[in-house]
Write a sequence for this structure.
C-alpha cells in the first residue's frame, strides 16, 4: 500500500527530532516563556519583516482558529469565509461553540474576493433589520485554501483594503502556508502577508513539525491579554519549548522554505504525471494537494494499492479524490504511485 | 399616517386586558406555578388533543427558540432550517451564542421539505469526515413561515416521517400560528401539529397577547428538567401568571381562533384589493402577511401616508415591501389603505 | 390564608394598568423605539440627574444581569459579588452559561466592601500565576441586598473609588431599588447611584410594574452596540412600549417613590410588631424584607394560615423565614398577619 | 542555578524520544486511528484491568478537564471540587467558558470527602429554590491533589459510593497520577481507580511524556459520540500517533511506574533532607511536591541559586514555596539543592 491521502502522515523533519533530542534534558520555564520560543519568535519576526509582531505558538489549527476568532469578535458578530473554509466544515462546530456564526460567502475555487466581502458588508449595513442580525465582524481565509488554490498578491491587497475600509480584521489560516509560499505561481511573500493581514499563522503540523502553529500579530496590540485566552482554550502547551524548538529549527537556514519547495516539486511531478495519464482535474491547484475526478470502477481498483482521500461524489459514475505530497514525500513513492495510476 | 408594517403594533385583545385588570390584586405564586397557568395548560392540552403534553409559557420568540434548541442539541450538533428562518437571520445570533450552527437548507417559498432534510442527513452520514463536522441534530420550521406561507398536512407528515426516521426532533415556531390555522387553504389542525411535531409553540405576542409563547411538548419527557434551563436563559417571568391569564383568555371560547380569523379576513380583502389595483405579488401568501413588488417612485409617494415594512430591493427600480394585518386591524383602516394604494 | 412570602404576588399598580388600557390600541414601533419609551427615558434621566445616560428597558432581572455582565467582561474575566448575590445563587447559572466565573467575596449582611474588592484585586495582581487565572473584571452589588440591607453612601463611595482605581465597572442590581430609596435610614439618592455606579437598574417587577427593569448607563459609551446583545439574549420585548408605558407611569408624579414608601411603612410596622411579639431577627433589614428565626413547632402552626418564604434551617429546632411587604400590601392584611403571629 | 520549581522542566523520557525517532517516517492515519494508539489503548486497558474501557488521548490537562466536564454536564449543572482544584484556579476559567459553575466544597489538605459531597447534594435537594440554582452534577478530584496529597482507597470508596447514590459521575484528574501510585503510603491501584471512578486520566505531560493525557472511561457508553466533542474543543492531535507512541512506551515494561518510583525516591530524600535541616512543612505531602514555609530573608538568599515555585505569603515574614521532583530529577542536582538549603 502506498500513502498519498494527506500531508500529516509522518512525524517531523529529522532536524526537528534531532533538536528535540539534543535539548531534551534542558530545564526551561513553561508556557512559551523559554529561550527557544524567544529565539523562534525573533527568527519569524525577521522572516516576516515585522520587528514588532507579537508571536504565539499554539498546538493545532482548530484551536488557533477558534481562539483567534473568539478573541476578535464581539458577542453579536460573525466571521465571513468561503463555504469550503476549514472553520465552516472541518472543526465540528468549534466557532459556533465559541458563540459565533460563520457566514459562507460566494467563492471561486475556495477563495472569496474583496468585492464579495464589500457586497456582504454593504448589504448588512443597508438592512433596516441589522440590529436583529449577526454583524459580519471579520474575514477568515486560508492560504493555500482547502482546495490547494492561492490568493494572488492583488487579491490579498483587495481583501485587505476592503477589510480596512470596513474596520474589520483579516485573518489568514496558514496551516499549509509553506506549500503556498513555495508554489511556482505564487507572488505573495511572508512580509506581504504581514502587511496585508491583521493576524495569520504559519502552519507547522503539515509542514515539517510534529505539531504547532505560529500565530503572528503584526500589531501586538490587536488582542491585548491574549495569553489567558489561549490558556482558557487549552491551546497552550505546558512544555511550550517543544513549539519553540520546532519553529526555531524550521526558521533556521530556511528549512521551512526548503522542505516546502520539495513538496511542491513532488506535487508538480505528480500533476504532470496525472496529466500525462489523462486524468481530469477537479480544480487547478498549484500547491501540494491535487484533486482529480476518477471513474468509480478505476477507483475501486486503485483503492487496493493506494490510500487516497475521498472528497465527494462527482456524479453517479465518478468521484473526486485528493492526493497530497508533503515535505516527507519520497520520490520513489511518487514514482510507484504514478506507475499504479 | 396609516400603519400596516407589522402585526405587533397594538397592545392586547381587550378581553385580555380586562382579565389582567380583574385579577390584578390576586396573590399568586410565581414562575408559572399559579392556577391561571394551570388552567391555561389544560385548555391548550384540550385544544391540541394531547392530554399528557408538558406546556411552558415563555416571554418571547427569540428566547423560546434559543432555549428549546439549546436544550435539544448536544454540543456538536446543529439545527436545520430555511435560509429565511427567524433563527437564521432575525435573532442576532442567539442560536450560535448558545453554541450551535444553523444549517440553511434549500427552500421554496420559505419552506423546507422532508426530502431536503433526508438528503442533508444522508450526505452527512455518508461523509467520511463526519466526525469533524457539525452533526445535523434537529429541524426548525415556522408555521406560517416568515414569508407567510404554510406547510400542508402532507408536507408536515413528510417532514415528521423523515425526522423520526433519523431520530431527530422536529420543532415548529408558531409565532403566528393562529394566522396559519385560520387561513382558508389551511388543512393542518392543532392536534395534527401535536401529532407530527416533537415540540412547537403557539404564539401570543403577534396574536392577541401583550407577549408570550405557549410551548407544547406532546411527550413531556422530551426535555427533562426544562425549568432550570428556562430560568437560566432568563425566559421565565417572575409573575408567571401574566402569561397564564393571557393564554387562558385566548383559549376560552375559541378567542384565539376567532381573532385569527378576523386577521385573515382582513388579509384576504387586502390581497383582493391589491390584485384589483394591479399590484404584483412577490410571493403567494395565504396568511396575514402580504409581500408586493412596488415601483420605487410609487413607494416614495406611499411612504408619505403609509407605514410599510421594507423587505429587500427587488431590482434597480423596484422594492419588495410587506403589509400585515392582525387581530387588531380595523376594517376602516384597511379601506383607507386600499384607497391610498 | 394570608400571603407575605414575596414582593411579586400581585399584578401592577392600578395606574399602570389604566395606562395600558388607555394606550392599548395605539400603534407604535417595536423594540423600544416608541414614544412611551422615549418619554420614560427622559423622566428617568431627570430623576437620576444624568442628562446623557443611555437607558434600556429589559424584561426581567436574570436577563438584565446576564446581558450586562456578558457585555462588560472579556472572555477570561469574572465578576465579584457577595455569596448571597442573586447571580451567585438564584439564576440557575446564567452568568456561567454566558462564560464567566462569579467570585463570591467575604461579605457582611449581604454586602461587600471596597476594602474586600481591593484586597481581592491586589491578591490577583500579586499572584505569579495570574495569567492562568480568571481575572476579576467587575463588581456586582444589589441595593437593597438579597437580605434587605442597604449600602450607605459612604460604602458606595468606597466601592466606587476602588473600582475606578482598578478600572473595573461597578454594576448595581436594583431589582428592589425603590424599597431601598424609601427606607428611613437610606442616605443614597438616584443621582448618587448614577454618579457612583457605572451601570445600574431600577427594578419594576417588584416595585409596581407587571415586569421590567430600567437599565441606566450614565456614560452611554460604556457598552457600544448594546441593542443586538439584548436582542441576542432574548431580553428585548417586541412590544417594547409595554416597558416604556410602565416606567413612564412609575416616574410620573413620583409614583415609584410613593408606592415604595408605602411598602416601607408597612415593613416598619411589621418589624415593630414582630419585635413586640418577641420574634428574633436573623438580620437587621431596613427595607421591605424581614428575616426572622422561628421555632419549628411554631412555624408548623403558622404555616396553616400564612404563606412565608423558607430561607434556611437555623439550627435543629429553628428556621429562618422571610416576610415581604410591597407596594401592594394592604394594611388590613398586615394586621391579620400580626394577629396570627 | 538549580531547578526544582516544577515537574515539567524537561522534555520526555529518552525511551519515548527513541520511539518517536524510530517511527518517525511511518505513515499512519490521523486523529488516533493509528496502530500505536490502538496498542497503547490495549496496554492501558490491561494496566487498569478494564477490558472494555474506552480510551482517548488528549493533548493537555486543561483541555481534558474542560472537554470531559462539558461532555458530562447538562447546561444548568455544575461541578464540585476542592477550592485548590486545578479547574478552580489554574485554567483561566475554562470550565465557566464551557458554561458551567465550579462549586468549591470544604476541603482538607486539598481533598474533599464523600461526606461533604453528600451534604452539599442534600442541601441542594432540600432547597425549595433549587430550580433556580445550579444543580451539582459531578465531582472532580485530583490524585495526587494540587498539594501533593493522596486520597486513600477508603476515601475514594466513600466518594464513589456517594456519587453513585446521587447518580453523578466521579472524575479524577490524574495529571500526576504516576507519582501518586508510586508513593510509599499509597494503597490505591489503577484497577481500583477504574472501579471507583467513572472517568479519569493518566497524566503524561508531568510523568515522562512530552505531553498527553490518557483518558479512561471504564464504561465506554458514559459519553457517546465523544470524538466530535474532542475535535470541537481542539483537543485532538492531527498526528494522533504521537500520543499513542508515548503512552505505548510508558505502558511497556512498567516504564510509567518505574520512572514515577524514581521521582518518589528523590522526593523522599528531599523531604528527609528538609526535615534534617529543620524546615517547616506547610502540608504533609507523600508525593513529588514538597511545600515548605521559609523565612523571607532566607528565601531571598535561596533565590540566587535555586528556582522554586512561589505558592503564597504565609505571614509577614514567611512564604510558602514548592519544590518538585520528577522522573527526570538527577540525584546530583538534589544533593546540590540540599547542600544549598
Amino acid at each position: 500500500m502506498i500513502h498519498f491521502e494527506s500531508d500529516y502522515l509522518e512525524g517531523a523533519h529529522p532536524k526537528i527530532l534531532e533538536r528535540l533530542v539534543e535539548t531534551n534534558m534542558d530545564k526551561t520555564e513553561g508556557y512559551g516563556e523559554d529561550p527557544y520560543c524567544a529565539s523562534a519568535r525573533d527568527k519569524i519576526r525577521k522572516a516576516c519583516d515585522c520587528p514588532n509582531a507579537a508571536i504565539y505558538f499554539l498546538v493545532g489549527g482548530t484551536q488557533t482558529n477558534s481562539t483567534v476568532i473568539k478573541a476578535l469578535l464581539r458577542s453579536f458578530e460573525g466571521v465571513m469565509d468561503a463555504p469550503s473554509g476549514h472553520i465552516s466544515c472541518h472543526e465540528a462546530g468549534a466557532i459556533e461553540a465559541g458563540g459565533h456564526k460563520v457566514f459562507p460567502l460566494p467563492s471561486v475555487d475556495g477563495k472569496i474576493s474583496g468585492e464579495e466581502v464589500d457586497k456582504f458588508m454593504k448589504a448588512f449595513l443597508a438592512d433596516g433589520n441589522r440590529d436583529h442580525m449577526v454583524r459580519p465582524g471579520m474575514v477568515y481565509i486560508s492560504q493555500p485554501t482547502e482546495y490547494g488554490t492561492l490568493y494572488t498578491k492583488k487579491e490579498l491587497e483587495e481583501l485587505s483594503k476592503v477589510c480596512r475600509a470596513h474596520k474589520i480584521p483579516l485573518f489568514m489560516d496558514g496551516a499549509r502556508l509553506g506549500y503556498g509560499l513555495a508554489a511556482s505561481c505564487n507572488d505573495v511573500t511572508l512580509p506581504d502577508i504581514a502587511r496585508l493581514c491583521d493576524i495569520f499563522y504559519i502552519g507547522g503540523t503539515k509542514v515539517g513539525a510534529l505539531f504547532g502553529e505560529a500565530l503572528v500579530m503584526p500589531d501586538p496590540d490587536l488582542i491585548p491579554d491574549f495569553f489567558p485566552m489561549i490558556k482558557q482554550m487549552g491551546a497552550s502547551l505546558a512544555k511550550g519549548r517543544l513549539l519553540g524548538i520546532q519553529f526555531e529549527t524550521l526558521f533556521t537556514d530556511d528549512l521551512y522554505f526548503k522542505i516546502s519547495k520539495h513538496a511542491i516539486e513532488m506535487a508538480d511531478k505528480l500533476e504532470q504525471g496525472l496529466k500525462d495519464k489523462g486524468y481530469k482535474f477537479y480544480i487547478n491547484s498549484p500547491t501540494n494537494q491535487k484533486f482529480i475526478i476518477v471513474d468509480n470502477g478505476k477507483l475501486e481498483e486503485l483503492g487496493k494499492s493506494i490510500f487516497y482521500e475521498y472528497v465527494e461524489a462527482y456524479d453517479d459514475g465518478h468521484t473526486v479524490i485528493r492526493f497530497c505530497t508533503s515535505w516527507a514525500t519520497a520520490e520513489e513513492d511518487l514514482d510507484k504511485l504514478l506507475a499504479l495510476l
